[in-house]
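Limitations
The structure tokens in this dataset are predictions for the assembled complex, not deposited experimental models. Users should treat interface geometry with appropriate caution, especially where small molecules or nucleic acid strands are included. An illustrative entry is reproduced here so readers can see what is and is not provided.
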Amino acid sequence: MPILNIALIEGRSNEQKEALISEVTDACVRALGVKPETVRILLQDIATQDFGVAGESVRVKRERQA
Amino acid sequence: MPILNIALIEGRSNEQKEALISEVTDACVRALGVKPETVRILLQDIATQDFGVAGESVRVKRERQA
Amino acid sequence: MPILNIALIEGRSNEQKEALISEVTDACVRALGVKPETVRILLQDIATQDFGVAGESVRVKRERQA
Amino acid sequence: MPILNIALIEGRSNEQKEALISEVTDACVRALGVKPETVRILLQDIATQDFGVAGESVRVKRERQA
Amino acid sequence: MPILNIALIEGRSNEQKEALISEVTDACVRALGVKPETVRILLQDIATQDFGVAGESVRVKRERQA
Amino acid sequence: MPILNIALIEGRSNEQKEALISEVTDACVRALGVKPETVRILLQDIATQDFGVAGESVRVKRERQA
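Predicted assembly:
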């Protein structure tokens, strides 16, 4: 009964999210031998100002690189 | 000093959330013998496209069943 | 389909954990009107050196107060 | 830069965990078009007394079914 | 390679969030001796109706105190 | 009332953890203007076989590099 939380930088389409849910569920089934209906996945959209890497947000990093 | 994260499919009213916070805090007090003021609860609204069960999102499942 | 993570300072007995799972599930059922079998709860034991409040760990706080 | 937390009932071998990390990373690469080195995964072993479904722990459920 | 999730009551400005990411990353570097580029931080804005303390939400607490 | 979860690869001493709790709390106080006693931090030790980067665990990566 795996439970997955997946944090993503915001901006993914519903189609990408659907593919992610499907592919990751299949990956759990193959690796762990669990039934697909036992796999629960929560996606979490993270805004660029809320995702920090190396001491700055992705928002600031992208503005600097623009 | 229990800390709870509760992920819910979006759409709950403030009244339901208030009841949930109150009832779950009481449950912790009864089961653990802690003081209510030490219990912290974070509610997380999950959009239907962000909640995956059995390899598809709740959004797709509901559209298919509509 | 609520999913709950509950972080607790280590040391709770299996009986207390069982009571917590039972009471918190009932609380979700009452407040949200969901079926009990849709409620999933993960308990997380936190060691006293891993729980920080007010800038120090519970381990150090307890040693100071002993 | 997806970050995944995966909660599993304890008892998986290192080989199963390695397969899970590899398969889930590939799934993220295919669904999101990200580079594998940006994917970070945290596995969390949950003891059977710490995983509650339908108001009781997996520990109690298994004992009842034994 | 520390990964931090920081839950905050909503309402912080981008400048406060940027300062938080910068200061917390520096704190990890000093305390753990890691390189800043290995530190990843996710900020999570929690609405006042979604943050419960002592059995009620911060929304209700603030209305009562207003 | 910030709540922080910090995932670390296992092996940190209690002294490093204490320094981390102290430094990160101070960082929150400086960046957000909150009182130290409102800051709660949970440290989570992640075993090397449970931390995946780029499709493999840190356990396997370290064995390969040894």
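Some entries come with short summary sentences. For this one: Chain E has a mean pLDDT of 97.
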